[in-house]
Amino acid sequence: DIQMTQSPSTLSASVGDRVTITCRASQSLGNWLAWYQQKPEKAPKLLLYQASSLQSGVPSRFSGSGSGTEFTLTINSLQPDDFATYYCQQCDSYPCTFGPGTKVHIK
Amino acid sequence: VQLVESGGGLVQPGGSLRLSCAASGFAFSDHYMDWVRQAPGKGLEWVGRSRNRANSYTTEYVASVKGRFTVSRDNSKNFLYLQMTSLRTEDTAVYYCARGVPYVGFDDWGQGTLVTVSS
């Protein structure tokens, strides 16, 4: 199975900050990586796919980069609505696997 | 697109339960459909998949549920199912159905249904 790790596990930030989350895969994924945002008691929401493609309707302050085994999610100018948990995910090979999540707190 | 799960509840260890997901707003048979779960306070875990008509609706599972859970679908009614047997306490989670898009991810999700396995 492909193992996904994320760093940091938690992050404190202020509105307006630039935030970067890193995701690493135990094997090369090409660019098959997705990012999700989840708020408490809600279903996850797809933010980015193929490492850097923005899902329809997602604000442009979200961006992604990377390939192979290392990927990043960047949020430019953090907004109050962005405080949530973020997960990376691969489905390059089965089983599909998620990272453990990064919780973004208000500082 | 709308996905609505139902069928969750309290079940004893060793018991069975069938979850349903009613899909609307898209060509159901043309899409992969997935189940993803989240144990209380924990992260997301992919459970299983039903591919689309073009791929003969074949299925995949995570190892921890293989042989115990079955993903199926009724394409005439636009329903996805998760039949769960030999349930264990560690299967306690919110179960989401999601629309899977190859090389993209899960682009639409239901609201989830809670399954509690406890004596």
Polypeptide structure, described:
The complex is a heterodimer of chains A (about 110) and B (about 120). With about 110 residues, chain A is mostly beta strands. Chain A contains no helices and eleven strands. Chain A has strands at about 5, 10-15, 20-25, 35-40, 45-50, 55, 60-65, 70-75, 85-90, 95-100, 100-105. In chain A, strands 2, 4, 5, 6, 9, 10 and 11 form a seven-stranded mixed sheet that branches. In chain A, strand 4 and strand 5 (about 45-50) form a beta hairpin. With about 120 residues, chain B is mainly β. Chain B has no helices and eleven strands. Chain B has strands at about 1-5, 10, 15-25, 30-40, 45-50, 60, 70-75, 80-85, 95-100, 105-110, 115. In chain B, the strands form two sheets. In chain B, strands 2, 4, 5, 6, 9, 10 and 11 form a seven-stranded mixed sheet that branches. A four-stranded antiparallel sheet of chain B has the order 1-3-8-7, with no helix packed on it. Chain B is globular, with a radius of gyration of 13 Å. The interface of A and B includes residues 36, 43, 49, 99 and 100 of A.
Q: Could you tell me how far the N terminus lies from the C terminus of chain B, measured between alpha carbons in angstroms? A: 37 Å
* Shape, per Cα inertia axes of chain B: globular
Count of helical stretches of chain A: 0
Helix content class of chain B: under 10%
Principal-axes shape call of chain A: globular
Helix content of chain A: under 10%
What order do the SSEs of chain A take from the amino end to the carboxyl end, as H and E? EEEEEEEEEEE
Sketch the major β-sheet of chain A.
7 strands, mixed
**Unreliable segments of 5+ consecutive residues of chain A:** none
Q: Output the structural class of chain B.
A: mainly beta
Q: How much strand content do the residues of chain B show? A: over 45%
Biggest interface, chains and residue tallies: A-B, 23 and 24 residues
Strand element count of chain B: 11
Estimate the mean pLDDT confidence of chain B: 98
Report the mean per-residue pLDDT of chain A as an integer: 96
Instruction: Please compute the radius of gyration of chain B using only Cα atoms.
Output: 13 Å
Regions of chain B with pLDDT < 50 over 5+ consecutive residues? none
Span between N and C termini of chain A? Answer: 36 Å
- What class, by secondary structure content of chain A? mainly beta
Oligomer: heterodimer
